[in-house]
Amino acid sequence: MRLRSLFLLIAGVMIGLKVAAKLREDDPEVLHGPQRGRSEQRPALRLVSTQVQRLTDAATGKSLDAIRRLRGEIRERLGEDDAAAWN
Predict the structure, then answer these.
(1) Per-residue pLDDT, 48
(2) Contact 39, 46 (CB under 8 A)
(3) 36-46: burial string, b at 16+ Cβ within 10 Å, e else
(4) Model-level pTM?
């Protein structure tokens, strides 16, 4: 019983080491970092990415404004005494 448990433990450690080594390997299908020259070759892509960034910034600003407005309404409902809890 003890010898079998020892073999199972050793086998588990060996399998774990092999799996860990396999997971540490780089995947050749994954691109690493931005590729230079891609945006220079495709001006339409650069234009679209700029527009997407503008839309994202506008959406972020609107959502932050909505959150601030909602927090103000909650403060009004709770009263001035509980406003210190929000700071």
Answers:
(1) 84
(2) yes
(3) eeeeeeeeeee
(4) 0.40
